[in-house]
C-alpha cells in the first residue's frame, strides 16, 4: 500500500490512537495484510479505544500462504445449543508434522451479542476455530485484548511537564512504520 492509501484507510476510524495505528501497521508489515482487501480491520470497543484484528479473509490468506500448510478439516459436535453445535473443531495439517494441530471452540464461550453471531452463529464459530488453530499451527500472534486503564497507568508512569521537556524530540513508532511501509 502507498502511504496516501493507508492514511485514507486510517481516516475511517476517528480518535484512533497511535498505539492502535502502530499495532495495525506492525501486523500489516509482518504478515503482508492488505486493509483494502479486508484482511485486517479495527473495531471500537469503547469511545476512542480500538482493537486491531485479522479478518477471516486475512486468516485464510495467512494459512494458504504458509509453505508448510497441507490441509484443513472441520468437525462439529452432534449435540446442539440454541440450534448450533456445542463446539466446532479445526485440524490443520502441516507437511513438516506427523500429527495435525487440532482445536475445539465452544459456542457457549465464543458467542457474543454482535449481529454476525446472531445471524450466522455456525459460521462465526467455525471462523473462531480456524483462527485459533492457525495461531497454534503457524505461531501467528495477534493482540486479543487491551490492558485495563488501571494496569496502563501503573506500568507507565506519567511525567510532569518539566520531565517531558528534557526528552529529545523523536519520531513516533507509527511514523517510522509508515515510512518503512512506503519503501516496500
Tell me the number of strands. Answer: 7
**Which strand order do you get reading across the main beta sheet?**
3-6-7
Please indicate the percent range of residues in DSSP E strands (runs of 2 or more). 15-25%
Give the structural class. Answer: alpha+beta
Question: Any idea what the shape is?
Answer: flat
Radius of gyration (CA) equals 20 Å
Terminal Cα span: 8 Å
Question: In percent, how helical is the residue content?
Answer: 40-55%
Q: What topology emerges from the helices and strands here?
A:
Layout: H1 3-10, H2 18-31, E1 40-46, E2 49-54, H3 56-65, E3 69-76, E4 80-81, E5 84-85, E6 87-94, E7 101-106, H4 107-110, H5 115-119, H6 121-138, H7 149-155, H8 161-166, H9 173-183
Antiparallel strand pairs: 1-2, 3-6, 4-5, 6-7
Helix pairs in contact: 2-9, 3-6
Structure, explained:
The longest helix is centred in the last third of the chain and has 18 residues, at 121-138. The chain contains nine helices and seven strands; from the N terminus they run ααββαβββββαααααα. With 184 residues, the protein is an alpha+beta fold. The chain has helices at residues 3-10, 18-31, 56-65, 107-110, 115-119, 121-138, 149-155, 161-166, 173-183, and strands spanning 40-46, 49-54, 69-76, 80-81, 84-85, 87-94, 101-106. The strands form three sheets. Strands 3-6-7 form a three-stranded antiparallel sheet.
Keywords summarizing the entry:
184 residues, alpha+beta, three-stranded antiparallel beta sheet, two-stranded antiparallel sheet, 9 helices, 7 strands, 45% helix, flat
Write a short abstract of this structure.
This protein has 184 residues and is of the alpha+beta class. Helices cover 45% and strands 21% of the residues. The chain contains nine helices and seven strands, in the order H-H-E-E-H-E-E-E-E-E-H-H-H-H-H-H.
